[in-house]
Amino acid sequence: MPRRVKHRKSQRGRIKGSATRGNTVVFGEFGIQSLEAGWIKATTIEAGRIAAQQYVRGEGKLYIRIFPHKSVTSTPLETRMGKGKGEPDFWAATVKPGTILYELSGVTEQQAKVCFARLASKMPVKVRFVRRRTA
To answer: How confident is residue 88, by pLDDT bands cut at 50, 70 and 90?
Structure first.
């Protein structure tokens, strides 16, 4: 939880369009790219990091390309209407189609595919395996 945020009440918004920034593999050789729009919780991002770190075991380097900026609120159950907006329930990263979620470097392509298959099972959006483009 941050101490202060710029805008106190963030609204849900609508995720439209595809990613124009953060849609290419930059830091590693391999990555996973989202094919759908959605929110990815901070706990899900952390679970993916742990799963990847356990598989890689210090051989390669993992880069996380998304950050949970959006606070999602909820009012408690059995609360009457009114009384303002609820407390922040969790933090989420807003993801558009084409956004690179994670990247790996220093591993073979086969190892990266196995590692990202483990990550893909944890993600709430459909993802695909991508390689770095060579100029």
So the answer is: confident
